[in-house]
Design goal:
alpha+beta; 2 helices; 38% helix; single chain; Alpha-Beta Plaits
Length: 64
């Protein structure tokens, strides 16, 4: 399980975009978004670095 802080995530559209981006990269991924906390937890076969890249490409770069 990987958890990322996504400071640019602010609305339902953001939530959908983040979920869709992760699912495109790994259809079997489990995505749990906490919009008020601006965090996303991902259970995936992809590495943390790969997931961070997917999120960044979708316009939601994780905070370091």
């Amino acid at each position: 399980m990987h958890e990322f802080k996504l400071p640019d995530m602010s609305c339902g559209h953001c939530l959908a975009a983040v979920t869709e981006a992760v699912k495109e990269a790994d259809a079997k991924a489990e995505v749990d978004v906490d919009l008020p906390q601006k965090t996303v937890r991902v259970e995936s076969g992809l590495s943390r670095e790969q997931l961070a890249g997917v999120l960044s490409e979708a316009g939601y770069p994780p905070a370091s």
